[in-house]
Design goal:
The chain contains 14 helices and 26 strands. The chain has helices at about 5-10, 10-20, 25-30, 60-70, 85-90, 120-125, 180-195, 220, 240-270, 305, 335-340, 355-360, 365-370, 420-445, and strands spanning about 35-45, 70-80, 130-135, 150-155, 170, 175, 200-210, 275-280, 310-315, 320-330, 380-385, 385-390, 395, 400-405, 450, 455-460, 465, 470, 480-485, 490-500, 500-510, 520-525, 530-535, 560-570, 575-585, 590-600. The protein is an alpha+beta fold. Residues about 1-35 and about 600-614 have low confidence and may be disordered. Strand 5 (about 170) and strand 6 (about 175) form a beta hairpin. The chain has three domains: about 35-345, Alkaline Phosphatase, subunit A (3-Layer(aba) Sandwich); about 380-445, no CATH class; about 450-600, Jelly Rolls, CATH 2.60.120.260. It has a ten-stranded mixed sheet, with helices on both faces. Strands 15, 17, 20, 22, 23 and 25 form a six-stranded mixed sheet that branches. Strands 11-12-13-14 form a four-stranded antiparallel sheet, with helices on one face.
């Protein structure tokens, strides 16, 4: 008989049972499923060495360490060299270049809408799903998190944010203002989500924005590290930026505090035993600091750039205080979580990852289980044409050198001459992988930004192209705005694909100083255009940077005001959206943060050709 306790918890269990039976899973197997909740913490730019459980005495991370003590650690867990690719691989179980993701900004971070995500699977199985933090896999619908299996979103869709104290954020599809220090605010919303859904299966994804720069951190956490001379340093200490190290360590301790808040809430609600908790990071550390003596950092394809902490706790199911040494990665999480929860892992496209559930569930004291074979594998990583591959023993680096990672984690000694056949085979495999990645990157190089696949579409400066004298406010496009508009033939363009033809109400978010009031701003697409004159001064100050702990940061943040441009009629299909200033007053145009297009008449929803909402 089917276990009624499963069904009584939520109707979602019925869905899982029916789906499982349709796919040949026995009732007995389904009865063993407890429909565990899932909590996933993803740190941003935190290195393997930024935890005290990994031996770093510069800081203390007791809450995260408790996951290692009460759960299992994956000793050889790998992610990508930078943020968005890791998120794409984690969400799809596929190498990121196959998913449309090739970079971190200007559209290269977008996860193709025809990919099946982890949250698509869990949402279809009846889980309530929420994301609280950094998305970084697309802004406009159908790339938005609410189109990818999430029921609730609070955070930002960009690759990084320029200020961490009460910044502008998105709550679902609405603009809101954050409340206090951003990681704390994200945690507050995650806690509310857990409170509201504690009596039904939920997946709570908390991708923190830290310790990614800018190095903003609250005084309560920074005071411990202010002026600290770390006792543990990077393997090349002359490259270490001590202010960045101090700030990053303080930010990591803040993450730990917030992780502890959520773990405590799970205990209070009686959810500890029935919740799978995962903690990992999206790439190596974003500065040279202690990282276990490994070579490289964020942006490199060496051990230090790719190896991530990975801790998983599920009391009573996954062994406590245990280390798994087999090689695994973010690409394996979709099939692993599907296996642990008995949710059929049926995706639109073949996955590259491999479930490591058997490694987590096996009993190390049982002769049969401990002898389970984990076949050797080749785990590839690609970034900026640099390709590396990791096997159970070796890493072939981007230059073709071979390192025995079991003996030489720091990649000091090239052993290619000692293992010529292995080196040759891995070089051939890397060459083939590089060629496949290059082909996929080229296929996704020309993708317009989607408009009209939701009621409102935001086109941020990040996704636009400046022409003439116009420049970005910072070198990183992700949280930039356009400034230095000094010529009347300057322009900003967005390559777009319109999903629903018709009239759109156009708004530009701007600033304008007093001498420039009277400037005319025009937005055009195809044969349609609309324009207005700036009649109101809006020249706010740059946001306070006193809690940013690294000098000479390039991040500049200020408030922007909406300016109604009028109605623009868009034709379905590919087009170019162009913002111009036919009349400049005082030799300067407006600064531009974003353009928003709101459907003036709501018609039938549409999606790009061949794409459907699951």
């Amino acid at each position: 008989m089917i276990d009624r306790t499963i069904i009584s918890r939520t109707g979602a269990a019925v869905i899982v049972i029916v789906v499982a039976l349709l796919h040949g899973v026995t009732v007995e197997a389904v009865e063993t499923a407890s429909q565990p909740n899932i909590v996933i913490f993803l740190a941003d730019d935190q290195g393997w060495g930024d935890l005290s459980c990994h031996g770093n005495t510069n800081l203390s991370t007791p809450s995260i360490d408790s996951l290692a003590r009460e759960g299992t650690t994956l000793e050889n867990f790998y992610v990508c060299a930078v943020c968005a690719p890791t998120r794409a691989e984690f969400l799809t179980g596929r190498y990121h270049f196959r998913t449309g993701v090739s970079g971190v900004s200007e559209g290269t971070e977008r996860l193709n809408p025809d990919e099946t995500t982890l949250t698509d699977l869990f949402h279809a199985a009846g889980y309530t799903t929420g994301i609280f933090g950094k998305w970084h896999n697309g802004t406009q619908s159908p790339y938005h998190p609410l189109d990818r299996g999430f029921d609730e979103f609070y955070g930002f869709t960009s690759g990084h944010w320029g200020h961490y104290f009460s910044p502008p954020l998105d709550h679902n599809r609405s603009r809101v203002k954050g409340n206090g220090y951003l990681p704390n605010d994200l945690t507050d919303h995650a806690l509310t989500f857990i409170d509201e859904h504690h009596d039904e299966p939920f997946l709570c994804y908390v991708p923190f924005n830290t310790p990614h720069s800018p190095f903003f951190v609250d005084d309560d956490f920074y005071k411990t590290f202010d002026g600290l001379n770390p006792t543990m340093r990077n393997r090349t200490p002359d490259k270490e930026d001590l202010p960045a190290t101090r700030a990053a360590l303080a930010m990591c301790e803040n993450i730990d505090w917030n992780v502890g808040r959520i773990l405590s809430r799970l205990d209070t609600l009686g959810l500890r035993e029935n919740t799978i908790v995962i903690y990992f990071s999206d790439n190596g550390p974003n500065s040279f600091r202690w990282n276990g003596g490994m070579k490289g950092k964020k942006g490199t394809v060496d051990e230090g750039g790719l190896r991530s902490p990975f801790l998983i706790r599920w009391p009573g199911k996954i062994s406590a205080d245990r280390t798994v040494t087999e090689v695994a990665g973010a690409i394996d999480l979709l099939p692993t979580l599907a296996a642990l929860t008995h949710i059929p892992c049926e995706t639109a496209k073949p996955i590259d990852g491999r479930s490591f559930a058997e490694l987590l569930l096996r009993n190390p004291t049982s002769p049969d289980d401990s002898a389970a074979v984990w076949p050797d594998r080749r785990l590839f990583s690609v970034w900026n044409k640099r390709v590396t591959v990791r096997t159970s023993q070796f890493r072939l680096d981007e230059r073709g050198s071979l390192f025995d990672i079991r003996k030489d984690r720091g990649q000091h000694h090239d052993v290619a001459n000692d293992h010529p056949d292995i080196a040759r085979r891995l070089r051939e495999a890397v060459a083939a992988h590089r060629a496949e990645a290059a082909e996929q990157f080229a296929a996704n190089a020309d993708r317009p930004f989607t408009v009209g696949y939701a009621e409102s579409t935001t086109l941020p400066a990040r996704d636009g192209v400046p022409h003439g004298t116009i420049r970005r406010s910072s070198k990183a496009p992700n949280n930039s705005f356009f400034t230095n508009w000094t010529q009347d033939d300057d322009s900003i363009t967005w390559s777009i694909e319109v999903g629903t033809a018709g009239p759109y109400r156009a708004t530009v978010f701007y600033t304008c100083s007093r001498p420039n009031v009277g400037t005319t701003v025009r937005l055009a697409s195809g044969t349609s255009s609309t324009e207005t004159t700036v009649t109101e001064v809006f020249d706010p100050p740059i946001w306070d940077k006193s809690k940013e702990r690294v000098a000479e940061s390039h991040y500049i943040v200020k408030d922007f005001k909406p300016l109604e441009l009028g109605i623009l009629t868009l034709i379905k299909g590919r087009d170019m959206l162009t913002l111009t200033a036919p009349k400049l007053v005082g030799g300067q145009g407006i600064d531009v943060y974003s353009v928003v297009l709101q459907k003036a008449e709501i018609g039938n929803s549409a999606r790009p050709h061949g794409q459907s909402r699951r």
